[in-house]
Amino acid sequence: MSGKVTPSSGDPRRPDDARRFPRTAAGLDESGLDNYFLFSMMVALAGFALKNKMIAWCAVFVCAAGFANLSRGSALQHVTSSIAFSVMGLVASYIHEGPTGLAALFPAPKAAAAGA
């Protein structure tokens, strides 16, 4: 009966060896920075998609606020992606949309000047 586990024999694992995982509380400054950069990326993507200048500038300001509160141990990937998305949203909102599709590849020939 040593090989079989029956409901009456209980759990075959060793409950004395199980240790609970101690959950540590995250510091407010670290989670706050992640929230700044996450919010900055979301607002920058909205500014990029909507091509709205106010939303894009808001993303730049939120990114700058997160960058100003940056500590030495912060993840560099969050910072660089937030800055890149903010700048990309800002540039996309100021660049006007030109011709797309085949019109961009093959522009129409210009008419010859009359009387020349």
Automatic annotation (TrEMBL):
MF term (GO), any: protein folding chaperone
Family: Belongs to the Asterix family.
Record has Transport as a keyword: no
Name of the protein in its database record: Uncharacterized protein
InterPro entries: ASTER
Pfam families in alphabetical order: ASTER
Cellular compartment(s): Membrane
A GO cellular component entry from the record: endoplasmic reticulum membrane
Entry keywords, A to Z: Membrane, Transmembrane, Transmembrane helix
GO BP field: protein insertion into ER membrane
Residue numbers spanned by region Disordered: 1-23
Keyword flag Ribosomal protein: no
Biased composition, class Basic and acidic residues, residue ranges: 11-20
